[in-house]
Amino acid sequence: MRSDARLALLARSAQWELDEAAFEIGGGRYTPEQRQRLASQLVALAEELRGGDVQPMITGSDMA
To answer: Where does the source fall among the domains of life (predicted)?
Structure first.
């Protein structure tokens, strides 16, 4: 699969999952396991957005 097609697939899938999560979290029905699964999915999307090359992020607290 081309990388742009993979990125589009990951983005659309994350969008669907986030829509469901927003609804279920609001009703108190989203489990810790679902949260972990969604977090992993979002990390995969972020890695793809970065081009597969994960770079550490420097924040203000890292510079102290």
So the answer is: Bacteria
